[in-house]
Amino acid sequence: MSFDRFAAAFDGWRVIPVERDGEIVATIMTRGDEIHCATKTPGKWITRKLIREVLGEILDTHGICTTLVMADNAAGHAFVQRLGFTRTRGGEMVRYELRKPRHV
Prior knowledge:
- By secondary structure, the chain is of the alpha+beta class.
- The chain has helices at residues 3-9, 48-62, 74-82; strands spanning 14-20, 23-31, 34-39, 64-70, 86-89, 93-99.
- It has a three-stranded antiparallel sheet, covered by helices on one side.
- Strand 1 and strand 2 form a beta hairpin.
């Protein structure tokens, strides 16, 4: 699927392409407090720095960031947990949340 077609499927979402060697290899999609990542091929295409920047924007605006991971996607669960997300609901699509730390 082309990037333009993929972006059209996420109409209303902010779609951030991730390029390597002039080719789009992954995307980050955000809308409100929700974030999703997708890669075209397996690999570590989305850097921790980039994802932290995007998460920071969402947390600064909303105080919380949410995402969904398909129940059978072990790599997806490991990825969001490494970023600090906490599982809040199970089912076919597992919901995760990341909250902005409170300053005391």
